[in-house]
Fold each of these.
Amino acid sequence: MACSVQCAQDYVSDARVDLIEQLKNLPLIIEKLYQKKVLNNTEVSDLEAIPEKCRKARKVLDWITNKGKDACLEFLKILDLERKSVLPLKLHTWISHFSFGEESDDIQGPTSCHEIRTLLKTKAKEILDQQCKRSNHFFGGNAKQKFTYIPLVLDRDTEKNKPHNKVIHKSKKSKKPRGKKLRSYIPKDTCRNTPEDLLNSQEKSILLVGKPGIGKTTAVKQMLYFWAERHDENLDFMFYFDKNVLTNIATSNLQSLLLDTLIMSNADLRQKAEEITQYLEDYSEKVTIIFDGISGFHDNNILLRIIHHELLPEAKIVVTCRPETEDDDFFDWPTCKVYVQGFSEESIYTYLTQMPDQDPELVNSVVDNPALFSLCHVPMYAFMVAACFSYYTSEGAHKQCTATELYIRIFRHCIQRHGNKKLRHLDAHIKDCKDKILLLAESAFSATKLKTINLEFDYSDSCIAGVFLRSVSVVSPAFARTFCSFLHNTIQEFFSALWLLEKPQKLHEVLQLCQTEEYKHMKYMIPFLCGLLSETTIPLLKCLFPPDQPKGTCHGFFEKVLKTFLHDEPDEEYSVDAVFLCQCLNELQSSEACLWFLERVDYSLDLSEEHLDPHQCCAVSYVISQSRDKPVHLNLENSVVSLSGLKTILRHSQNLRDLSMTLCQVWTAALKCEQQSYLINLLLLCGKEIYLPIITQKALHQQAGEIITQSADPVILHLCCGQNPQQLSDAFCRTISTWLPSISSVHFTTKQNQRESCEEWEKRVTLFKLNLCLQAALHQKENVQTTVKKVTLCGTDECNFLLDLYSHVKQYETETGRKVLPALLPVYQSTRAEWIIDLSERKASLLLEVLKLQTVKKPVELSGWSDEESEVRSFLQCLPYISQLSTFFLDTKKHLSICSIKLVLVQN
Ligand SMILES: Nc1ncnc2c1ncn2[C@@H]1O[C@H](COP(=O)(O)OP(=O)(O)OP(=O)(O)O)[C@@H](O)[C@H]1O
């Protein structure tokens, strides 16, 4: 698409290097320049005398640039007109990006192409209008009339968006460590990619991937809108094919695919179809084709050839699909992948506030309700929430709400509006329509099974099915068929689940099918089915199903789901699609089922390598909240969790075991790739506590250091030990000692089931702490006292630590010949109330050394007396430094005597 406003002279100069190397057919260019009077006879002769191609090209470029912008413009026009013979394919896009303005009439293609573009723009506007009308339908006619796009998070980082949420379990053994690029998942729009950016980019193949209802279609429709509304002179074309058309393509001919329906009723254009197709082929860089909602196209030759750029080689191809199709069909398509992540928090707010019938108080209630708010990150759910506004009360908006409940509410709302019924008559009305509704549900189920959204269902706009369906015509000169489809895929899946509730005997078959490659898309029914079986939704559907019916189905249902999606193989470590199951459980809202699940996974949720959006976090948080006596371990290694999602999970932190380890995983991932603002907010969320792994990773420590040292308030540092016990290294110790001024206390954590014995771990930690103090004594003398305080704050026996520190430093002095002890004097001379020593563990001689450092006598509490003569002697030498001595005796049965003897030493 032509977009450059650069002057011709600059445009040529900027591409000089490429042109010198790649210009073809120079004699033709020279001849054309001569015809246009840009070059004269002598110049042409001079050029002809140059044998070497590059030199000749250089000379041409020198002359035309020296001659000024008119010469350059003529030159560019020649390149554009003769592109096939003078430019390699690579430079076709370059030349088409030059804006020739009004002078370019002669190169803007035949009028038939202009007419086609006008038709395409009209069609695009119709498509967008239809979308508005459909939304309007839900809002009872109050919705905005114009197509509206609220910014979506469009993430181009393929590394961190590896497909997940697979039904087929993943093997832990094959997990690879995530790349450095790991960054936060939504709801943060840091990249601010827009559909317009994608459209204007140089990318020729763009794949938008995302889960149901996340906004893929809307994103590509924004491209369509952008193009349709743009007023410029450029002759460019955008073809949009939605799911309906894609599933009904009956041609293998490019012309027929692109033009048949457009020119069907225009005899004049029909005659020029070949001319138009030829132009589109010759100027394929002016063509954009959108295939929205593609799935399984391997047997469709024409799609294959377009997608692989065999036809229209320079066209921009934009495809949208759900994650499972990305896995299967686009695995090796060299493309720019864009992961549609839904709404950011900011966008949710914008979306809700600009909806019709919104009441600011109601909006705030939704924003304050984590379950509802997190649902809204999926635009389809935001849409549902907004559509429900009209009959929500703010009390209702405060309530916990599952996705299924939202769909049921909208289902009831639409039927109520359609029948023009009062709420109290609604149930009876739904009951009257039961047969029609179930017929529709059956049809939805069959279509879902067949992986299509086209239903062959007889209905009229006035009947109840008309509330949920729209008709779709697939017209071509060869055939014309009318189908109908649901207003959205997810509504079809909801209806499919309704049918399963009616026919529970099919459940087993469906669960089996979900595990097959061909039918894995059927898993999307399962969370809805769980929701329909929930105690909270049963009353809303009692008009369709007598309450006993769902209850009967529910019995043993979740066990079957668990069996399907939870694989445990005796030989291998089993892996679970835990997020999916948590979503099902959240829909089911059953404490009992949560406990089964937790039992089955041994109260350990492996969410490693997952991307958890806020809605999924809510589901995980719900499951955690249901664990009663036994805390849950949450593995978030290499996972990406949004801050709001983490906040939701941490609401139930009392139910989490090894929380420090989990937070350490969160911090590790965040430090590797998050921006500073995220880290600062994470620090706030963790209550000014930072959790770091005890591993030597320079970049990680550098980033952590920045956060710690820049924090306005002192930070509590937790050091967490992973699997390798060797890594409490000196280098790490030195790094931490530099942060100590910004740290209020240091804590050490190890996994509960750490193989290393508790005693060994304690020893290593003590040694590490001693080294920290030694570092302070060596390099930060002024801070030595506070350093000792900080490292001994958390459950360290201060007396023993100070005694050990003395011997540690002494040893260091002996080994290095350096004097360190003087720096530590303030520590020993500070106002310690008393010394407590167990002489069976520490030597009396050591106590003597320490007591000697003091300037005043101190009380001593003694235990573990030793009869060894040297010890006794040493201890007696201590007496002059002791103001008061307390001791405990073991009685004859070796029990600690309850009475203690206090010796008051005579002061001399
Ligand atoms: N950016 C947006 N701005 C406003 N509304 C949006 C936006 N994205 C999605 N929506 C709303 O959410 C609905 C569902 O979005 P959309 O159809 O784009 O999802 P999808 O990812 O294509 O789903 P599926 O995979 O099921 O086809 C839209 O009909 C629209 O009402």
Amino acid sequence: MTVSRGLMPPWLVRHDLLSPDECRDLLDWALDNEAHFKPAALDKGLVDPAIRRSLSLRDLGPFSRLFEGHVRAMVPELIDQLRVTSFVAGEIELELVAHNDGAHFALHGDLYTGQGSARGDRLLSAVYYFHRAPKAFSGGCLRLHRIGAVPGDMGVDIAPDQNSLVAFPSWAPHEVLTVRCPSGAFGDSRFAVNCWVYRANLRQPSADGDQPPVAHIGDELDHVAATDRRID
Ligand SMILES: O=C(O)CCC(=O)C(=O)O
Ligand SMILES: [Fe+2]
């Protein structure tokens, strides 16, 4: 089967998502928690810096509620603007990522592959950007690609602007272009908060007692499921 290429996925950018105080507090919190960041993983917890190189923190502490609130409130607008089939939002998965010198993420989509995830289906992806001022890195654009893109294709580059959020359907092919950060200092990194909106599982156990195949909202999952994602 041949995939016809050409159509760009929809996306939107929102500037100034947080107040200046919130943005500064988030940076301070990220710097205070440097020791808790771990190499960012791919499918099934695999770390492969040739595909994805960055440092990740899965627990946003006091900022989880802030991001979950913002993103949940935006879901109706995102469904509308990104032309996603209407759905009821369930879990919102978060990840704080620091991209320092040489960091990147090769072409991929954010959907689960294989047997999927007990966590359910990701439908919307949103990424919030912040960094120290003055900015001490270059590069690191998010490159959105056409359907059926292959590595090396051109796409649309979205700059990781201070206090901005970009959103797109989770199926959209995208990559993070290589970051250059001459100081190598953690605090000079390109910071991003990944937010993934899941479809709520509204199915009830059937009358004969069978359980639905996916977990209910709020179920705790292991690190492997949390880091499972598709790499094209
Ligand atoms: O940092 C970004 O701009 C996007 C990161 C990303 O695509 C991912 O972690 O799945
Ligand atoms: Fe992604």
